[in-house]
Design brief:
The complex is a heterodimer of chains A (about 300) and B (about 300). With about 300 residues, chain A is mainly alpha-helical. Helix content of chain A is about 80%, strand content about 0%. The chains are: A mainly alpha (about 300), B alpha/beta (about 300).
Chain lengths: ~300, ~300
């Protein structure tokens, strides 16, 4: 198993993945630094809140969002489907290792590889912010204090997407068939849904059904908020938070809802909380992992 | 414990409505070379894949030295070279063989040692550090054989090891197989379409058609069974010999010999010797024509299709 683990780890942290992760994370750092330059007039607290909200949003959408999700999906959907399609799995399975060992080695390889890429991305981002030297030292300290929260959220994203991707990789014969539905979900969750939320909010707000069952962006936002709140609670921010209401747990903050959404959403969120969302996604991941092991055992290669 | 190293009992494999292997039973004795022959789609590769555990039988059971098909213990005993071997794009020949060795249970050092020794044995030293995916078909087949051997298996399954190769590469691969069999006393199950070459390696023929076993015989017994009774004769005056025999037998003259067909070869042999003696001829060649695997295959299939 350890050789399959090493091989998968090696292919996960490819040169290209490393370069792309570093480049994107550095770009995010440059955006935060340059935006802060134009926004330094005002009370310390306002500047701090604005820069933190911008950091949360960019980390959520880009570093632990598109970048991490696409990388995890791309690597994990290929674990079985690519090898079966290309014919290399036949010889892998012909050596004296159980398929459970093969799959376990591959899953662990992807998880550890993605965690390493996540750490490199976060360090690249924070290094850029620090090296640029354009932000006040105290504000930078506050910004860096969120590193463990981002890391933990990233690990949750890796574990979840690895589980679902591996499951689809065990079912489909080609990597692309397993990858496309998941990439569509990511585009919907991080692209379409935030747009939809902003637009519907302008009218009268999202419906409870969409919020509870469809709005993956809201679900992931709640998980993100859970980890960030462990460091310091996110305060509703006039500039950015008002546009997206992304990290607002409406159930716990009824005033905001009454003010912006009306009682309908409050009712919907009586049972939708971070805990419920986290339990749901954990169960989904667990079931995906179990099914993957069951399927691979009986799969014809 | 059973005397057989592989036992397949009533194996059936269906893909939807299509039955690839139908109620197939086979026993393999250790130390023998078995040739599995049959037309395309007959079920040869499916049978091998089921022995390896890559395909799950729809019905039936089997074991490799008492271990369930596809189990870790069974895979430890088996070496497998599939018809189409795919390699990782980023791995050199050494890296690939080392990786396969470690997966076969060898330590890092053992795997490297074994990889280098197989590379030498298969004449791949010059290409050891080149990417396997860029190799020619013949060289890829050699790497495929080498990876099958890397964990010192007792039984080797070779699926079309000479397919898509030029004649010299085919001979080279078969020579390698022959050497392996002689040196290590392996049990081999080998499938091939090039029957004339296969018959120089195998000592047992397993014929399969439409997923069903139609022949499982020692090659000599099989040839005996389907023998046609053809005597090949050559003397210093073939024309005279032809003249004396053509009224009684079905005779065919080739460039420097005569093929005589009969239902009783013993009587024909006596008759030929008599004609030679009476006419004071010098006998150069007298032998019974051995049925080639190719002909054997055709006859068996014709019999099956009737």
């Amino acid at each position: 198993m350890k050789h399959i683990f090493s091989r998968t780890l090696e292919t996960t942290i490819k040169k290209v993945s490393l370069i792309v992760s570093i480049l994107i994370s550095v770009t995010v750092g440059v955006i935060v630094v340059s935006t802060n330059k134009t926004n330094t007039i005002g009370a310390y607290q306002v500047v701090l809140e604005n820069v933190l909200m911008l950091q949360h949003l960019l980390v959520y959408f880009v570093i632990t969002g598109f970048l991490l999700m696409v990388s995890t999906i791309s690597n994990a959907t290929g674990l079985i489907a690519s090898e079966v399609h290309e014919g290399t799995f036949k010889l892998l399975a012909a050596k004296p290792n159980s398929r459970t060992q093969i799959l376990a080695g591959k899953i662990l390889g992807v998880i550890v590889g993605e965690v390493i890429l996540l750490v490199i991305s976060l360090l690249s981002y924070f290094s850029t912010v620090i090296i640029a030297g354009a932000i006040d030292g105290n504000i930078i300290k506050e910004m860096v204090s969120y590193l463990p929260a981002y890391f933990l959220y990233g690990v949750v994203i890796i574990l979840f997407f690895t589980a679902v991707s591996t499951f689809l990789s065990c079912i489909f014969k080609r990597k692309i068939s397993a990858m496309l539905p998941l990439l569509t979900i990511v585009v919907i969750a991080l692209g379409f849904l935030p747009l939809q939320r902003v637009m519907t909010q302008v009218r009268e707000g999202s419906t409870p059904t969409i919020l509870n069952y469809v709005d993956l962006n809201y679900h992931f936002g709640l998980i993100f908020k859970f980890f960030v709140d462990l460091v310091s609670p996110i305060k509703p921010n006039r500039l950015i938070g008002y546009l997206t209401n992304l990290f607002t747990d409406y159930r716990l903050d009824p005033d905001v809802i009454r003010q912006e959404w009306g009682g309908r959403i409050l009712l919907a969120n009586n049972y939708l909380s971070t805990t419920v969302v986290m339990i749901f996604y954990s169960l989904l991941a667990l079931v995906s992992y179990i099914l993957s092991f069951v399927i691979i055992k009986k799969k014809d290669i | 414990m059973s005397e057989y190293c592989i036992e397949l009992n009533n194996l059936t494999k269906r893909f939807g409505k299509f039955t690839a292997v139908d109620n197939f039973s086979l026993q393999l004795l250790p130390g023998k070379v078995y040739g599995i022959v049959g037309p395309n789609g007959a079920g040869k590769s499916t049978t091998m894949a089921m022995i390896m555990g890559s395909l799950q039988p729809t019905e039936g059971t089997g074991n490799v030295m008492g271990h369930q098909l596809g189990s870790e213990q069974a895979l430890k005993i088996l070496g497998y070279s599939p018809e189409f071997t795919s390699f990782y794009d980023d791995m050199s020949c050494v890296e690939y063989l080392w990786y396969m060795g470690t997966l076969g249970g060898l330590s890092n050092e053992e795997a490297m040692e074994k990889a280098m020794s197989l590379i030498k044995q298969y004449d791949l030293v010059e290409h050891a550090y080149k990417k396997v995916s860029k190799f020619s078909t013949g060289m890829k087949k050699k790497v495929s054989l080498a990876q099958a051997m890397i964990h010192d298996p007792q039984i080797l399954l070779l699926d079309e090891p000479t397919a898509n190769l030029d004649p010299s590469s085919r001979m080279e691969i078969l020579d390698t197989v022959r050497k392996m069999v002689q040196e290590r006393k392996l049990t081999v199950l080998i499938s091939s379409h090039v029957l004339t070459e296969l018959e120089t390696v195998i000592d047992h023929v397993v014929m399969i058609n439409h997923g069903k076993l139609i022949m499982d015989e020692d090659i000599v017994t099989a040839q005996e069974k389907f023998k046609q009774g053809i005597l090949v004769v050559s003397c210093n005056n073939n024309d005279l010999l032809l003249e004396k025999l053509e009224n009684k037998y079905d005779v065919e003259k080739s460039k420097d010999s005569i093929r005589i067909m009969t239902s009783d070869v013993s009587i024909l042999k006596k008759e030929v010797v008599k004609v030679i003696f009476e006419n004071d001829l010098i006998l150069n060649v007298l032998h019974e024509e051995v049925l080639s695997l190719d002909l054997l295959y055709k006859q068996a299939l014709e019999g099956e299709n009737k």
